[in-house]
Design brief:
This protein is an alpha/beta fold. Strand 7, helix 9 and strand 8 form a beta-alpha-beta unit.
């Protein structure tokens, strides 16, 4: 029996609660994806769409990769599940940890696995607090993150996420979380005579001194703030951040959930800035979205405390190190290395960003077209000279998004910032088509 898209949507609305649930939006422009092939998604009505955000930044290898399906099936046939609680392990998780040690920052050699980014964020918070507590520094518990940062929506991760729309329904917020301004080149205003990157980094020092260095456990940051609208920091920002963290004995923890595994043009986002973190978290691209898997990596300094402390690190997930997820991750890493995703992201990203800039940067209501590797964003403004934003009620970004969908492009927004991060394997002709669609869509909503 053939089921129509309308029938699917009606059943969906009857029984399903969605992530970021908003019934009105789903009723008006819902999709039911039934197939994926490369950079293309197919809706239940047969329409094809370019996957403009790689699912949710994760399907880097594209849809329909049979080798990933085969890796999952083979693992399911031999060992579908086992616990990795203390005393239990399996060959696939051991190989994955060893593989990551060879691909990660030299400072990061030990790994713990989760089911995704939000769990990884909570793991970072707890690990940082455990690290200091086991050394007798009981006050060192505070987590400093940044405005516009996105680190997930668990109760803990939400408190580090710096996008305010995620907070109001679930407050009051937890104590011990502090936020500083983002190094947002388009909007951050530095004092006269000071480099914007240095000035934005110095916001961390101000916060540490205000809170008391003896109370701050970690600073948490994405190398490029992805969900915020691809905010790329100035080149001198992270070197200064590393200096500040070292000076005040604060762990530097980087959220590589979006930027890890080649998306920015390097295997890890912070490599662009010549800086090594104390702890990282990852997810998304490690399995190209084919299985839920994430994790954290820690420095030997942190691992030594975990190994020698008298008290057990009381942190665990049922699906930590899931055999099937680890098998898919290992095969995904093969693809990332064999097809050189960092190099592809560098070349295709430059090509794509140039195309978007040529087509849209001069538009009177496009404030900025920006990017890093194969992740780009277009920021719409009411007044280009003053950078004034449109009133939220006008929903300019949403209107452009709808116009793009009518032309066969599906992606996501942050307000009036349109994000684009197609799969790394996206061919140049589809990148050109995205540029055409965005040009036509912006023209429809905001004029040519």
């Amino acid at each position: 029996m053939n089921t129509s898209k309308a029938d699917y949507l009606q059943t969906d609305l009857t029984y399903l609660i969605h992530a970021l649930h908003n019934r009105r939006l789903h009723e008006n422009c819902g999709h039911v994806w039934i197939k994926g092939d490369g950079a293309i998604l197919v809706d239940a009505d047969g329409r094809e769409f370019i996957d403009g955000l790689s699912g949710l930044w994760n399907v880097v290898a594209g849809h329909g990769r049979k080798e990933l399906v085969e890796a999952a099936a083979a693992q399911m046939q031999t060992l579908a599940y086992c616990s990795t609680y203390a005393g239990s392990s399996h060959p696939t998780v051991i190989r994955l940890a060893e593989r990551l040690a060879g691909l990660s920052y030299p400072s990061i050699r030990r790994f713990f696995f989760t089911s995704g980014g939000g769990e990884s964020s909570d793991t970072c918070f707890k690990t940082a607090r455990y690290f200091w507590r086991m050394q007798g520094r009981l006050e060192k518990t505070k987590i400093i993150s940044r405005q516009w940062g996105y680190h997930g929506t668990t109760l803990g991760a939400m408190n580090a996420t710096g996008i305010a729309s995620y907070w109001p329904m679930f407050e009051s917020k937890l104590p011990g979380f502090v936020q500083i301004p983002s190094p947002y080149p388009y909007r951050y205003v530095a004092p006269a005579g000071v480099s914007p990157g240095i000035a934005a980094a110095n916001e961390l020092e101000k916060a540490i001194l205000r809170e008391g260095p003896e109370t701050v456990a970690m600073f948490f940051a994405e190398p490029v703030q992805g969900s915020a609208g691809v905010i790329v920091p100035p080149e001198d920002y992270f070197p200064r951040i590393r200096e500040i963290c070292d000076q005040y004995d604060v762990l530097l923890v980087t959220d590589e959930v979006i930027t890890g595994f080649g998306r920015t043009g390097k295997m890890w986002g912070l490599q662009h800035y010549g800086v090594q973190p104390d702890m990282i978290q990852f997810a998304k691209a490690i399995t190209s979205g084919y299985f839920p898997l994430g994790g954290i990596g820690v420095s030997e300094r942190i691992a030594n405390v975990l190994d020698t402390a008298d008290q057990t690190w009381m942190h665990a997930f049922t699906y930590s190190g899931h055999p099937v997820g680890c098998a898919v991750a290992l095969r995904t890493l093969d693809i990332i290395e064999q097809e050189d995703f960092p190099a592809q992201a560098t070349e295709k990203g430059a090509y794509f960003l140039s195309g978007l800039q040529v087509a849209l940067a001069s538009h009177p209501h496009v404030g900025e077209v920006r990017g890093k590797g194969l992740m780009c964003a277009i920021e719409f403004v009411q007044d280009k000279a003053t950078k004034a934003e449109y009133p939220a009620a006008e929903q300019i970004g949403h209107k452009v998004h709808l116009a793009a969908q009518r032309r066969g492009l599906y992606s996501r927004l942050r307000g009036d910032v349109f994000c684009l991060a197609p799969p790394i394997i996206t061919p140049h002709k589809l990148l050109d088509r995205i540029v055409e669609i965005m040009t036509e869509s912006v023209g429809e909503v905001l004029g040519a």
